């Protein structure tokens, strides 16, 4: 085999998470009650645009998750292939030039020369101090001064054309799929997309796609011959670093929730449902945990774990495995310290639900506690869980950056937004300033967190039961709706506009 | 005629969902000065939206698309919002249904009233203070100087509604809009509030627009009545005309569906179906689909107004003079033909025997949660129910009747006493030991909206009990003929049979609760309880959240089920007319204790305890043939945490004697089945104290 697949711990958990998501989608597809709110998510233009961008982030993260060790040229004495100690991912292969084209040190975005002067030996043997030509960036140019600008413009145009071309192909595929689904003409489908008469806001999605494709086209055209976002201190391409950081951010955002979810669900529901001493114990636990400064707790745990990893180096085959276990531990520690807020929410909701008459009816039928929790309470708190997960995601991504900056985050060998920002601390202080590493980390994180937040917003709006009552009455205007809306009016008028009526 | 408010062709729509909902569709009415105008209708008819349109307080989704609303010649719809603000509270004020929600909990009552005064008058602090005291005094709040500085949570429900009325009166309005002002209150409190409103109206010569669904309240209060159906007024008349001769088939059916003692042995008339969704476009008469007198014309042509007598007009084709030859006017011809066969029930063994049941909730305080006292929600209740009989437990809210029901089922653990079902003691059994008995006793809850899990389909809801208790599906074969084919598993067949038996098509089992109306949901809740073949159903106000016409459907269903299956009911309610229709025996409860119990006739014809007398007289009567003197109770139900010394009722009792303050009365036997606890009657000594 030319490669040896490696499944790191976080990889395995990501596969598990994917499996869960797929099962969830499968389940929702067959459940009308769940499907309706999710349909509403798909009707929100900002939510769907955000999801489109998130989709690209997740694809990059997933490609970076498929790890393997490439085989080396030579074989061992038994004739078996020897695998490299370096663990690569599919993303590394796709971005090979970015990974391998390493300069000496800093270079500005799209530059052809280094950012610092160094002593260069000329062909005639004399030495001068100058900005040396880059080894890879713009090395195809004979005369950088005259050709540099026109070459970049040429490549940008090429990139735009490529982006637009692939976008049009996607557009046509979408339209023909709609033709097949609705049975209307191609023209009609196109028009309905651009007139925004479709249920799903395809127009917004297509515009987002166009922007992403064009950017992608430009970057892919430029990246083969330039360092689009410059290079860092050791000459690594910053674009490559940013792409690699995405996986870490996503893992912190998703796996942490996965780890904290069982705690929050189990303890929150148990506290609310059983009340009494169980409630007291759980409340004391989370109140105590909440009052410890979380950075302190995380720092202590991470440092202890770091010592353990270093003293047991033999447990880890590769550096990647070691860094990975540290990342996983960080997720666990973050998870353990962050379950309290969701737990508190769930306890409150369960307290409300357990007094509901359908739960009492279940008691009257002698239904067991476990069945009441799984069949009656859990489905009815699921909307809170979903909202909390999506809202927490962005917070956790930012938390990783902060922790790595403080120095208790991920392994220093692991590329993440946090380590990039940490490095930028020194770069910003030097003269001339190196600004591109921080800027690209900032841009990538902003896009990721903003789209996650926008998506969370759409999810929250769609799952909020109060909004549900307003849009649910399409088939029948039931009395409850009328009552509900009028009581809402009353409360709002009573509280907001007290001067208007006595 | 000095018209105060005139509404002409008002159309209000709500932009919800795909189709706009025409909440108010071409409504016209006139209210004269000093008159009480009642707007009557079921929920979902657009009554509240009319009121909010007048105040221009519609929700964001609402829009008034046409029409005029003018108060003494000023058209509200032309006014700017700032001008409108000067009118609200000054010329028109509004009282809402829920006094708990309409007062701001973080402001004192005085501050809230002062807000209105500041908006409309320029008063100095001292005069404003005096005015507030005066207002509170006017609405009958005792010790207003002290209580005005209290917060709304320190007021009881009736007091809150009084404070709300005081606030509404602060601007000295010419029109008071009362949106279901007493629906959330108990009958005795309702009587107080209605009385207060009448009194104030006479003093101030103020007009009232009373919005209600309760025919009793209308008959007590109104001078003019308008019946609203599906966004429009279908009949308008003076009170006398309306109650003597309701013309529109809808009005007639509303009257017919009220449960009464006289109708005990027949089914109540039922208006089939529900109020149509207001989002649809109506072609003919809106009521045609539910009307017994519908003709072909009704489905195609919109009926116009027809005058019957002076001031009595109706929107129905039956009264069209040009149609007179063809249609005969339905002169209150609606009586239900379906009578329920009276099954002679022998006085059987008591199925359920509750003796001296006590439920006390401890009040804990401090860090170590020391018990400092207890709320005696139920304090020594004894009752028994025979097989196939109905015992009604009557009382005001907060008297502990629901707690009795739940503690019989051990949903709330009782503190003391005994609950014997078929001679088996239920108290003290473990969860596991109770399970075999669970199928015998079932519960139907008050609120059909919260008693069904919104995330489960009907089939899952009904099967839950069967699966949990491993019930044999005998009911299906016993009750309904098995429909051939279709269903596969025995449980599914049972669900089909149950749905059919409560009058729902069996296809509905695949749907979710939110797709059903209130009445349908209550049917599902009953089907769920029946699924485990119970012998006793505890019904906790099963109809109080429903409209009159839907209530009739549920009561019919309960009665049929009792005849067919021999069920016994413990019917917990505050609605006396339902009790008269359904119950065999009545137990009246006050502050955790039963004050009087006996056969239905004995209690309703000859109430002995002053509380029972007051309760019965406070019920708004539709046909006031005998001018019964209403016994007005002072004050509210005391807190069960600190019940009054002696007889619990003595602070409110019009006949209180010194002895009432000292000791709780022993049982007095009026007849072999009729007992009461009151010092007015000869006391029996504890030695002969026996339960029946």
What does this structure look like?
The complex is a heterodimer of chains A (502) and B (692). In chain A, the strands form 2 sheets. In chain A, strands 1, 2, 3 and 4 form a 4-stranded antiparallel β-sheet that branches. Residues 468-502 of chain A have low confidence and may be disordered. Chain A is an alpha+beta fold. In chain A, helix 3 (45-63) packs across helix 16 (436-463), helix 9 (238-274) runs antiparallel to helix 10 and helix 9 (238-274) runs parallel beside helix 12. Chain A has helices spanning 9-29, 32-42, 45-63, 90-94, 96-100, 144-182, 186-194, 202-223, 238-274, 276-291, 294-311, 319-354, 357-364, 369-406, 417-429, 436-463, 465-471, 479-496, and strands at residues 3-6, 67-75, 81-83, 88-89, 113-121, 127-133. With 692 residues, chain B is an alpha/beta fold. Chain B has an 8-stranded mixed β-sheet with strand order 6-7-8-3-9-10-12-11, sandwiched between helices. Chain B has an 8-stranded mixed β-sheet with strand order 18-19-20-15-21-22-24-23, sandwiched between helices. In chain B, a hairpin with a 2-residue loop joins strand 9 and strand 10. Residues 325-333, 475-487 and 687-692 of chain B have low confidence and may be disordered. Classes of the chains: A alpha+beta (502), B alpha/beta (692). Chains A and B meet through helix 13, helix 14 and helix 18 of A and helix 1, helix 4, helix 7, helix 14 and strand 18 of B.
Strand order of the largest sheet of chain B: 6-7-8-3-9-10-12-11
Question: Strand portion of chain A, in percent?
Answer: 5-15%
Q: Oligomeric status of the shown chains?
A: heterodimer
Helix/strand/pairing category of chain B: alpha/beta
Task: Give me the secondary-structure topology.
The complex is a heterodimer of chains A (502) and B (692).
Chain A: E1 3-6, H1 9-29, H2 32-42, H3 45-63, E2 67-75, E3 81-83, E4 88-89, H4 90-94, H5 96-100, E5 113-121, E6 127-133, H6 144-182, H7 186-194, H8 202-223, H9 238-274, H10 276-291, H11 294-311, H12 319-354, H13 357-364, H14 369-406, H15 417-429, H16 436-463, H17 465-471, H18 479-496
Antiparallel strand pairs in A: 1-2, 2-3, 2-4, 5-6
Helix pairs in contact in A: 1-9, 2-16, 3-8, 3-9, 3-16, 6-8, 9-10, 9-12, 9-14, 9-16, 10-12, 11-12, 12-14, 13-14, 14-15, 14-16, 15-16
Chain B: E1 3-14, E2 21-32, E3 36-40, H1 47-55, E4 62-71, E5 74-75, H2 81-87, E6 92-95, H3 99-102, H4 109-120, H5 125-138, H6 144-147, H7 157-169, E7 175-179, H8 187-204, E8 207-212, H9 215-221, E9 224-229, E10 232-238, H10 239-244, H11 249-256, H12 296-300, E11 305-309, E12 312-315, E13 350-365, E14 370-386, E15 390-394, H13 401-408, E16 416-421, E17 424-425, H14 431-438, E18 441-444, H15 458-469, H16 474-479, H17 490-501, H18 518-530, E19 536-540, H19 548-565, E20 568-573, H20 576-582, E21 585-590, E22 593-599, H21 600-605, H22 610-618, H23 658-662, E23 667-669, E24 675-677
Parallel strand pairs in B: 3-8, 3-9, 6-7, 7-8, 15-20, 15-21, 18-19, 19-20
Antiparallel strand pairs in B: 1-2, 1-4, 4-5, 9-10, 10-12, 11-12, 13-14, 13-16, 16-17, 21-22, 22-24, 23-24
Helix pairs in contact in B: 5-7, 7-8, 15-18, 17-18, 18-19
């Amino acid at each position: 085999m030319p490669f040896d697949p490696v499944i790191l711990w976080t990889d395995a958990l990501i596969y598990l998470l994917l499996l869960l998501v797929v099962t969830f989608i499968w389940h929702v597809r067959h459940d009308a009650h769940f499907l309706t709110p999710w349909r509403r998510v798909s009707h929100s233009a900002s939510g769907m645009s955000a999801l489109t961008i998130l989709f690209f982030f997740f694809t990059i993260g997933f490609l970076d998750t498929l790890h393997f060790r490439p085989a080396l040229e030579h074989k061992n004495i038994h004739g078996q292939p020897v695998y490299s100690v370096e663990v690569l991912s599919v993303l590394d292969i796709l971005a090979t030039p970015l990974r391998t084209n390493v300069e000496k040190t800093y270079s500005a975005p799209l530059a052809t020369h280094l950012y610092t002067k160094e002593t260069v030996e000329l062909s005639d043997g004399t030495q001068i101090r100058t900005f040396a030509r880059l080894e890879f960036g713009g090395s195809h140019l004979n005369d950088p001064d005259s050709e540099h600008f026109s070459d970049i413009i040429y490549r940008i145009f090429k990139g735009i054309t490529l982006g637009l071309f692939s976008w049009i192909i996607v557009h046509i595929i979408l339209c023909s799929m709609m033709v097949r689904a609705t049975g209307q003409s191609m023209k009609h489908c196109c028009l309905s997309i651009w007139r925004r008469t479709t249920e799903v806001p395809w127009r917004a999605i297509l515009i987002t796609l166009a922007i992403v494709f064009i950017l992608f086209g430009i970057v892919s055209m430029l990246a083969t011959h330039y360092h689009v976002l410059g290079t860092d201190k050791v000459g690594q391409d910053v674009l490559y670093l940013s792409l690699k950081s995405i996986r870490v951010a996503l893992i912190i955002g998703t796996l942490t929730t996965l780890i904290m979810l069982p705690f929050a669900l189990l303890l929150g529901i148990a506290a609310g449902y059983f009340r009494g001493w169980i409630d007291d114990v759980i409340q004391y636990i989370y109140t105590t945990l909440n009052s410890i400064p979380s950075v302190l707790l995380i720092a202590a745990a991470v440092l202890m774990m770091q010592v353990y990893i270093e003293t047991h180096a033999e447990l880890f085959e590769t550096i990647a495995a070691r860094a990975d276990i540290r990342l996983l531990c960080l997720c666990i520690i973050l998870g353990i310290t962050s379950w309290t807020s969701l737990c508190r929410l769930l306890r409150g909701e369960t307290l409300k639900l357990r007094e509901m008459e359908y739960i009492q009816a279940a008691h009257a039928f002698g239904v067991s506690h476990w069945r009441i929790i799984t069949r009656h309470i859990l489905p009815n708190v699921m909307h809170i869980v979903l909202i909390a997960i999506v809202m927490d995601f962005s917070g956790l991504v930012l938390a990783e950056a902060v922790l790595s900056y403080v120095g208790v985050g991920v392994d220093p060998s692991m590329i993440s937004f946090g380590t990039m920002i940490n490095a930028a601390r020194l770069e910003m202080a030097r003269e001339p300033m190196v600004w591109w590493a921080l800027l690209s980390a900032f841009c990538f994180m902003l896009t990721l967190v903003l789209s996650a937040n926008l998506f969370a917003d759409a999810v929250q709006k769609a799952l909020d039961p109060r909004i549900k009552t307003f849009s649910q009455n399409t088939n029948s205007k039931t009395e409850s709706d009328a009552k509900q809306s009028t009581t809402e009016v009353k409360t709002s008028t009573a509280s907001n506009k007290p001067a208007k009526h006595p | 005629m000095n018209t105060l408010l005139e509404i002409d062709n008002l159309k209000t729509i709500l932009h919800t969902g795909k189709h706009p909902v025409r909440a108010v569709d071409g409504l016209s009415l006139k209210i004269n000065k000093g008159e009480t105008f009642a707007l009557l209708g079921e929920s979902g008819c657009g009554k509240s939206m009319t009121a909010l349109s007048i105040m221009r307080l519609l929700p964001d989704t609402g829009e008034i698309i046409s029409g005029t609303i003018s108060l003494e010649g000023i058209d509200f719809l032309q006014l700017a919002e700032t001008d409108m603000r000067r009118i609200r509270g000054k010329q028109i004020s509004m009282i809402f249904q829920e006094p708990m929600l309409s007062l701001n909990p973080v402001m004192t009552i005085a501050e809230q009233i002062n807000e209105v005064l500041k908006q409309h008058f320029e008063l100095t602090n001292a005069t404003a203070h005096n005015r507030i005291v005066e207002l509170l005094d006017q609405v009958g709040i005792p010790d207003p100087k002290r209580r005005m500085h209290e917060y709304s949570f320190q007021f009881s429900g009736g007091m809150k509604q009084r404070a709300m009325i005081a606030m509404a009166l602060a601007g000295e309005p010419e029109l008071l809009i009362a949106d279901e002002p007493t629906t959330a209150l108990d009958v005795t409190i309702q009587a107080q509030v209605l009385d207060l409103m009448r009194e104030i109206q006479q003093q101030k010569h103020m007009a009232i627009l009373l919005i209600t669904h309760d025919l009793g309240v209308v008959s007590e209060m109104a001078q003019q009545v308008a019946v609203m159906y599906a966004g429009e007024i279908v009949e308008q008349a003076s009170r006398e005309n309306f109650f003597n001769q309701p013309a529109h088939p809808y009005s007639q059916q509303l009257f017919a569906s009220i449960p009464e003692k006289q109708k005990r042995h027949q089914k109540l008339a039922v208006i089939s179906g529900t109020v149509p969704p207001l989002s649809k476009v109506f072609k003919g008469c809106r009521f045609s689909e539910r009307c017994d007198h519908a003709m072909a014309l009704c489905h195609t042509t919109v009926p116009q107004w027809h005058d019957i007598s002076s001031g009595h007009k109706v929107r129905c084709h039956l009264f069209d003079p040009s149609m007179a030859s063809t249609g005969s006017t339905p002169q209150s011809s609606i009586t239900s033909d379906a009578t329920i066969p009276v099954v002679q029930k022998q006085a059987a063994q008591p199925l359920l025997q509750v003796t001296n049941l006590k439920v006390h909730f401890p009040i804990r305080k401090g860090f170590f949660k020391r018990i400092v006292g207890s709320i005696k929600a139920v304090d020594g209740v004894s009752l028994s129910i025979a097989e196939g009989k109905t015992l009604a437990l009557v009382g005001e809210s907060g008297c502990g009747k629901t707690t009795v029901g739940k503690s019989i089922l051990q949903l709330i653990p009782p503190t003391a006493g005994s609950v014997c079902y078929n001679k088996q003691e239920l108290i003290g059994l473990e969860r596991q030991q109770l399970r075999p008995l669970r199928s015998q006793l079932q519960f139907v809850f008050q609120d059909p909206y919260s008693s069904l899990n919104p995330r489960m389909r009907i089939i899952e809801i009904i099967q839950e009990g069967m699966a949990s208790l491993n019930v044999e599906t005998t009911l299906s074969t016993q009750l309904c003929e098995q429909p051939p084919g279709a269903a596969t598993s025995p449980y599914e067949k049972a669900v089909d049979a149950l749905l059919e038996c409560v009058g729902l098509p069996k296809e509905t089992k695949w749907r979710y609760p939110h797709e059903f109306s209130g009445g349908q949901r209550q049917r599902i809740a009953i089907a769920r309880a029946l699924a485990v073949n119970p012998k006793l159903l505890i019904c906790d106000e099963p109809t109080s959240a429903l409209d009159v016409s839907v209530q009739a459907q549920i009561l019919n269903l309960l009665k049929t089920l009792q005849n067919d299956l021999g069920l016994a009911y413990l019917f917990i309610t505050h609605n006396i007319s339902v009790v008269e229709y359904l119950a065999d025996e009545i137990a009246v409860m006050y502050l955790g204790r039963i004050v009087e119990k006996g056969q239905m006739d004995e209690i309703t014809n000859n109430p002995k305890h002053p509380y029972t007398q007051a309760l019965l007289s406070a019920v708004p009567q539709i046909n006031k043939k005998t001018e019964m003197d209403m016994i007005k109770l002072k004050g509210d139900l005391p807190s069960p945490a600190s019940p009054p010394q002696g007889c619990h009722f003595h602070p409110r009792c019009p006949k209180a004697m010194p002895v009432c303050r000292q000791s709780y009365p022993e049982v007095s036997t009026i007849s072999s089945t009729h007992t009461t606890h009151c010092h007015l009657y000869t006391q029996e000594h504890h030695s002969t104290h026996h339960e029946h």
